[in-house]
Amino acid sequence: VHHENASSASVHKVGTEHPTEGEQRIDRAESEKTSQKIPAAKMEKEKIVVKREEKKELIDPTPHLKRPPVDPTAPGEGGHGVNLQPSTPEEKRLYKEGLKNNSFNAWASSKISLHRSLPDLRHRLCKQKQFFRPLPQTSVIIIFYNEAWSTLLRTVHSVLEASPAELLREVILVDDCSTFDHLKAPLEAYLSTLPQVRLVRSPERQGLIRARLLGALHARGEVLTFLDSHCECMHGWLEPHNHFLSSQNPSQYRMFVCLFLCLFYYLPSFLTPQSTQMGGINFKELTFIWEPIPEHERRRRKSPVDPIRSPTMAGGIFSINKKYFEYLGAYDTGMEVWGGENIEMSFRIWQCGGTIVVLPCSHVGHVFRPTSPYSTGDAWKKLVHNNRRMAEVWMDDYKEIYYRKHPEYRKYDMGDVTQRKLLRKGLHCRDFSWYLSHVFPTLYVPDIQPIAHGQISNEQTGLCLDVIKAGKEPAGVFPCHGKGGTQYWEVTHAQEIRDVSGDFCLQASWDRSDVITAKCTHVRGDDGPSEEQKWVVKESGVLYHPQTDRCLDGSVSGLSMMDCSTSGSQRWRIENFQPL
Ligand code: LR7
Ligand code: MN
After folding, report:
1. Where is the composition biased (Basic and acidic residues) (predicted)?
2. Which residues pair with 364 in a beta bridge?
3. What's the Cα-to-Cα distance from 486 to each of 41, 389, 465, 564, rounded to whole Å?
4. Ligand 1 mean position to 372 CA, how many Å?
5. Which residues of 347-365 are buried (b: 16+ CB within 10 A; e: fewer)?
6. In this predicted model, what pLDDT tens digit does every residue of 363-406 receive, in sequence order?
7. Which of 103, 376, 539, 553 has its CA 20 to 30 Å from the CA of residue 204?
8. Is 545 within 8 Å of 475 (Cβ atoms)?
């Protein structure tokens, strides 16, 4: 309590840009004006800051729980993989059961200490960094549904053992109505021996979005930190968050910080730090991907440990100021089970005036798995439901890019998004085209209305142009299946013929008569595609390639580039074709 008073007192002392809830509602244009301070005022402010820094006190790194001494030869120590093979029938049974219930090797995980040590993989500059009082306290919220005992409790122990006690207000575990017995009385008994840990049970299965909100409701810290239920926090992971979200750092108040992730597997298993990257988006499925840091961001950052501005975030592992989280509309409670909420939050934060950064000095391991063990038959429908809610509220006309690749999605239920649209209005958020040009200037954005989209079938044979294996095998013709996918194409205003992923382009050249697909050469802001990828799509359905002066031919013998003729094999029926 003392600590929280201290930190809010400092807000008043610095007394400048830290917006209170009411003040945040000022028009953005206003706030931009006020942040361009005249130099004198700026100096004045710096003086105050310097004065305050004279009595700087270091954060005490002592955690709530001390990591017990461990045998360095024990399985998994130092973050190493365990290479254990189940041998007895009982072990084999446990191994199989663990895999089925978790989609990862929970049996191997159970052999690893809940307190195992992890290596310090941070850049040396991270290790030199010092953190001073006062910093806000965080509530760590871990939601879980049918998590394995060892991974869940290793997450909890790693938080308690790797966070300075004075920065960790509490750990809130939210049980999203799990059915496993070990998560009932045994979990309660175990947790009652741990300091600062609370368990909240949801009476019904909420899905991860509403489960997180339930956790936030119980949180008393100034900062909220969300973790998946199979994470391991590494030394020094928390301080950078609390520092960046601190009111000592007023201009950073609207920040949203993500952890730098370590890929993390049990059997075959190893710990590798993710190369420094930022979040991107797959326009086709509206899912999160990692991307290399673009040139402009590289130049903006002065040091390899500076935060990386990230257009999107992975979803599971992040911190945010609690007030800011609430002000921004927390989460969309209309979202179900799994997926979509991370992209929704990413767009919302940027469009409504916030910033997302990845902190390269904060490392957390996460157990990735190939599939969700809990996903039922309608998991996909729920994901589309969530994605539609996101696209309808935040993407303006750009949502069409998503829909036209999956026309059936328009018919999927998405519930009512009126409240979320009102939220966007009330917060005076910017539109999606602003996001694309200011936050993500390197992202290739498909045409909102391409010249054509859908399948391209040959007049003579009736066969469909098919990408087969994008970038790997020449394109070909196959009986039309009408399901989009490998037979979906877009004719762009830049004169390309792009595949469904949007990343591969039809390409022809002098030295070969077949047609391949290759990475599209045209990127945002350049002069257009290379000559090999340029096509003129004529009203007659002829696909003419100016560089080679040949035409795409789809006779019975297959797909090839031929001298142009009036043959029906060179005329194509192009879906949704609006000639220029
Ligand atoms: O119904 C459910 N109720 C839950 O409480 C389903 C899941 N959950 C819990 C679950 O126990 C886990 O703690 O929700 C958490 C996330 O589910 P996972 O671990 O099965 O999925 P994931 O790791 O693929 O999840 C990623 O994508 C999700 C999309 O909705 C969320 O955003 C997750 O937080 C996100 N995880 C990460 O970002 C971790 C880092 C991954 C990367 C890169
Ligand atoms: Mn996860």
Report:
1. 14-35
2. 233, 261
3. 61, 27, 8, 26
4. 9
5. bbbbbbbbbbbbbbbbbbb
6. 888 888 888 888 777 888 999 999 999 999 999 999 999 999 99
7. 103
8. no
Q: Which ligand is nearest to the CA of 373?
A: 1
Cα separation, 206 vs 199, in Å, equals 16
Phi then psi for residue 422, to 5 deg, are -65, -40
Q: For ligand 1, atom 21, name the residue with the nearest CA.
A: 372
pLDDT at 24 over 50: no
* Nearest listed ligand to the Cα of residue 144: 1
Classify strands 277-282 and 456-458 as parallel, antiparallel or unpaired.
unpaired
DSSP characters for 185-229?
HHHHHHHTTSTTEEEEE-SS---HHHHHHHHHHH--SSEEEEE-S
Structure pTM? Answer: 0.87
Mean per-residue pLDDT for 255-276?
A: 54
The binding-site residues of ligand 1, defined as CB within 6 angstroms of any ligand atom, are 143-145, 147, 176, 205, 207-208, 211, 228-229, 261, 314-317, 337-339, 341-342, 366, 372, 374
Distance (angstroms) between ligand 2 centre and the Cα of 230 equals: 6
What is the rounded distance in angstroms from the CA atom of residue 350 to the CA atom of residue 354? 5
Write down the residue that tokens 């992890």 correspond to.
118
Instruction: Say what the ipTM of the complex is.
Output: 0.97
72-120 tens-digit pLDDT: 899 888 887 777 889 999 999 999 999 999 998 899 899 999 999 888 8
